[in-house]
UniProtKB/TrEMBL annotation:
It comes from the Bacteria. GO terms for biological process: phosphate ion transmembrane transport. GO terms for cellular component: membrane. GO terms for molecular function: ATP binding; ATP hydrolysis activity; phosphate transmembrane transporter activity. This is Phosphate ABC transporter ATP-binding protein. Keywords: ATP-binding, Nucleotide-binding, Transport. Residues 1-21 are annotated as: Disordered. Residues 26-266 form the ABC transporter domain. The keyword Phosphoprotein does not apply. The keyword Lyase does not apply.
Amino acid sequence: MTQFADQQKENTQPVEQKQTNKQNVFEVENLNLWYGDDQALYDIQMKIPENDVTAIIGPSGCGKSTFLKTINRMVELVPIVRTSGTIKYKNQDIFSSINKEELRTKVGMVFQNPNPFPKSIYDNVAYGPRIHGIKKKDVLDKIVEKSLRDAAIWDEVKDRLHENAYGLSGGQQQRLCIARCLAIEPDVILMDEPTSALDPISTLKVEELVQELKKKYSIIIVTHNMQQAARISDRTAFFLNGELVEYSDTNQLFSNPTDKRTEDYITGRFG
Ligand SMILES: Nc1ncnc2c1ncn2[C@@H]1O[C@H](COP(=O)(O)OP(=O)(O)OP(=O)(O)O)[C@@H](O)[C@H]1O
């Protein structure tokens, strides 16, 4: 574990946007978002590199989930939402150059509570590919096996693929949901507190899985758990009251934060 800083610092430095050699999967500029008259995100600027694990931390209500749901346009399911600013996914403006369905195929999402469909394990994973027109059994069989293997759950379910997914434990259900997400071949996986409903052993399995998945996917994970962010992420963004206060390499953010508010939060002075 990284040591948290305990030095007092002046709150004068700008949000760090360190350049990396990697391409960015997302480039967010001047993003503002309102629910009706209430503003939830303020002028967010953020470049998210590919094949990194990017953690989003911050106290309850600071806008973490809203931000996550904005970058795959799920937030628009709330009718009163209004946004301004630009978000580019691989250089394409997500509001004008790519349609929502295509974006959501490329940017999959895993939620806080495992939410398998009331179907068999097999049919849960085959659901997305079938919607995308894949009908042949041998092709679906391969996709299902590969997705379950990549989600590190194949060995546990290979002999019960046609049993109902609700018969799995919570941790297994969450890895099944990750397999379901992988089956549509996304580039990016958004995870909204994916382990907060899981026991410590299931949490560890999902954390290990995230480390494997980042070899192929870019992962953006909202977590309340700062130790988890420190363990599994390459970069961390700290949100507070709808603002992005600090965004940098995870080691730096936890060991040498540039903003006093970040330091207060990671040292447990509030939140
Ligand atoms: N559907 C909605 N309608 C109106 N306001 C909303 C809606 N969803 C979120 N908000 C408001 O937007 C702000 C940010 O909420 P959000 O859920 O993004 O925060 P969060 O950091 O993810 O919180 P938590 O850690 O508790 O999940 C809060 O003030 C919240 O009340």
